[in-house]
Amino acid sequence: KMVRLVSEISAFLGEPEPFEIERKYLIDFPDTKYLESLDNCDKVEIIQTYLLSEDKNKEIRIRQRGKDGSYIYTQTIKEKVNDVKRIEREKRLTKEEYLELLMSADPDLRQIRKTRYCLSENGYYYEIDIFPFMKETAIMEIELKDEGEKFTFPKFIKVIREVTDDVN
Questions:
Q1: Are strands 41-50 and 112-121 parallel, antiparallel or unpaired?
Q2: Would the CA dihedral through 74, 21, 36, 121 be positive or negative?
Q3: How many whole angstroms separate alpha carbon 87 and alpha carbon 47?
Q4: Which letter does DSSP use for residue 52 in this model?
Q5: Long-range pairs for 75-82 at CB < 8 Å and ≥24 separation?
């Protein structure tokens, strides 16, 4: 009820709904040296922790993100609208708030560590996630303006299959 109320107030005030429309793909392990050589690509380290949530359609997570010992901390709440569209609310945390929220970590979900390559190419923004437990593949996300938007992949990325709807 509160989400709907906030949505109606936002619409009345002319503020757009904070929708996130993304598609995810399993890709061949990319040439990380090549990615690091690109001016339009930035590498960051991420530690992501999922928090306990009573609402099955609501994902709550906190992140430490940065490089070279300099980090920012965020909390993200994602509420599923459909398979590719979610309402996303994100807020910045202090290091102290982040450390306190770690105490609410969901014990059934592992903390995720990954290296992310943020790539701007072909007029799109791609995120390529490298996980320590995946040696031959990686995950690439693309954020879109609408669900039916057509897009292209960078030429040096080999897509295996779409995994947007995969649960794991």
A1: antiparallel
A2: negative
A3: 22
A4: P
A5: 75/101, 78/20, 79/3, 79/55, 81/19, 82/147
Residue 12 has pLDDT above 70, yes or no: no
For residue 19, what pLDDT band results from cuts at 50, 70 and 90?
low
pLDDT band at 84 (very low <50, low <70, confident <90, very high): low
Secondary structure of residue 156 in the 3-state scheme: coil
User: Which of these, 75, 30, 68, lies nearest to 51 by C-alpha position?
Assistant: 75
CB of 85 within 8 A of CB of 66?
no
Q: Which residue has the higher pLDDT, 79 or 18?
A: 79
Tell me how far apart the alpha carbons of residues 107 and 101 are, in angstroms, rounded to a whole number.
13
Q: Alpha-carbon distance 137 to 157, whole Å? A: 11
Q: Classify 3 in phi/psi space as left (phi over 0), alpha (psi -120 to 50) or beta.
A: alpha
Model confidence at 62, in pLDDT bands (50, 70, 90)?
A: very high
pTM: 0.78
3-state secondary structure of 137: strand
